[in-house]
Amino acid sequence: MQTQAPEQGTLADVAARRLAHSIVTGELAQGQKLNEAELAESFGMGRGPLREALRHLEGMRLVKRIPNAGARVVVLDRKTLSDLYAVREVLEGMACRLAAAQMSDDEISQLNTLLDQHEKQIKQQGGKVYAQSEGDLDFHYRIVRGSGNQMLMDLLGSEQYQLLRMCRFRTSRNAQRTKPALNQHRQIVEALTQRDGELAEMLMRRHIQGAWRSISEMMDKEEQAT
Amino acid sequence: MQTQAPEQGTLADVAARRLAHSIVTGELAQGQKLNEAELAESFGMGRGPLREALRHLEGMRLVKRIPNAGARVVVLDRKTLSDLYAVREVLEGMACRLAAAQMSDDEISQLNTLLDQHEKQIKQQGGKVYAQSEGDLDFHYRIVRGSGNQMLMDLLGSEQYQLLRMCRFRTSRNAQRTKPALNQHRQIVEALTQRDGELAEMLMRRHIQGAWRSISEMMDKEEQAT
DNA sequence: ATTACTCCGATTGTCGACAATCTGTGTAAA
DNA sequence: TTTACACAGATTGTCGACAATCGGAGTAAT
Questions:
Q1: Backbone phi, then psi, for B70, in 5-degree steps?
Q2: What is the reported pTM?
Q3: Closest nucleotide (CA of A66 to C1')?
Q4: I want to staple A149 with a disulfide (CB 3.0 to 4.6 A). Which of A26, A130, A220, B83 is the partner?
Q5: Which of A47, A75, A83, A159 best probes binding to B when mutated, by most B CB atoms within 10 angstroms?
Q6: ipTM of the complex
Q7: Where are the alpha helices (DSSP H) in chain B?
Q8: CA A150, CA B76: separation in Å to the nearest integer?
Q9: Distance from CA of B65 to the nearest CA of A (A)
Q10: DSSP A153
């Protein structure tokens, strides 16, 4: 019997996953120094695998390494997030356009089923923001996969989405935006159903612009409170 | 006295650079197995740093690692390149649009100077394709930098451009495309000078579409010859 | 002849120890 | 008091050796 989930792969992969999770959830604060020996000890492994994991996270842009000075958790300042959302708007818009041509009817109808679930979740419990946030990411990633472009999946899936999730955890406390977001999701699926790639792209870009505006305003208030 | 350039940074960084160069130039064939012990020996270092370098290259998508089975140089098949160029078209188009608003007049005029150099190189020596190819990348990356979006610079600069360079080395032998490409570059700079972001984006997207078409046709001929 | 199994070599994954480098503190001189 | 230097502690970078795992050669049974 294992005390934990199977945790497949090499120790370096395990460490990368656990670290990514800790960073995304905010368990490790932004800018925090990451001590190799400490972390290796707490994960019950040597420093070799841990160093490989740090290299991996560096590629994911979750940590920043400085030679001879160690690794620190990345800091998501306003400019970084702004740049991220600008790129994301373009890439996910592209994904939508491709998905309108590539996804099967079945996959599209599954999207509707997914949104039904989200709607139920929202009605049942307005508070459980975490699940809703993850559900939103699920929706977006399904469309990215639907594009059939492996490069897009790599960029938005395994790598950048971690940054997004990290951002969510910092800003998902308000989340009055869930209902309008759901409506926008519905519109996007409708466009996909009609195989209107142009429209789907436009709707997705607006959707992401709206998300950024919401986050941006929230950061304004936070700064003002300081 | 050093036999080589200074080669700054940790050994892992050095190894990553040297490996990336070998892969991009085709010195290491696509799909070739990468033996850790061998490479470490040839680089005069231990396996630790080399493993970190491989992790780094994996993040750059230059190698593919399979747990317990080692690392292999990535294979650029048609689908992969097609996906890459589709993403590149969107991202560099975006970069152009932003650059039209962000670059200083001075930076834009430097672009013209750069193109003058290219023109001279082409007239003097039609054969030296390597320099021209690198010059082209230089042009593109200057615009990406001009966008001011750090995320774009990361995506297109340090990471994906390596894949592009790799592609160039496989396909840059013909390169009758240098002259029309230069003209397109001129048009793009002209649009930037007029601060017309929409036009600049459109021209860049066409430029990249053209590049892909050229490469695609070339791959057709290659396949046909087989 | 084909299939399945076993064993062996080779390669990867991991660890512990040592060397190189950086950071912060304490001391001494101006 | 301030500045500069030197030392000590801690942290990162690197190496060599050992354990775990995989692929393939060889053999035997159907």
A1: 85, -175
A2: 0.89
A3: D12
A4: B83
A5: A83
A6: 0.86
A7: 11-24, 36-43, 47-59, 78-102, 105-124, 129-146, 150-152, 161-171, 178-193, 197-225
A8: 12
A9: 12
A10: I
- The tens digit of pLDDT for each residue in A54-77 reads 999 998 989 999 999 999 999 998
**pLDDT reading at A135 higher than 50:** yes
Domains of chain A as residue ranges with CATH: 11-73 (1.10.10.10), 78-219 (1.20.120.530)
Touching check for A12 and chain B: CB below 8 Å?
Answer: yes
Rounded distance, CA B114 to CA B134, Å?
12
Q: Which of B180, B202, B92 is nearest to B139 (CA)?
A: B92
pLDDT higher at B171 or A108: A108
Asked if pLDDT for residue B1 goes beyond 70, the answer is no
* DSSP H stretches of helix in chain A: 11-24, 36-43, 47-59, 78-102, 105-124, 129-146, 150-152, 161-171, 178-193, 197-225
Average pLDDT of the residues in A177-205:
94
Q: How far is the first Cα of chain B from the last one, in angstroms, to the nearest whole number?
A: 49
A15-28 confidence digits (pLDDT tens): 999 999 999 888 99
Contact A55 B59 (CB under 8 A): yes
Contact B29, B35 (CB under 8 A): no
Token couple for B64: 């593919």
Phi, psi for residue A33 in degrees, rounded to 5: -75, 140
Residues 6+ apart with CB under 8 A from A51: A36, B48, B52
Query: Does the beta-carbon distance from A59 to B61 stay under 8 Å?
Result: no
Report which residue type is found at B56.
Answer: H
Backbone angles phi, psi at A67, to 5 degrees: -50, 135
pLDDT band at B126 (very low <50, low <70, confident <90, very high): low
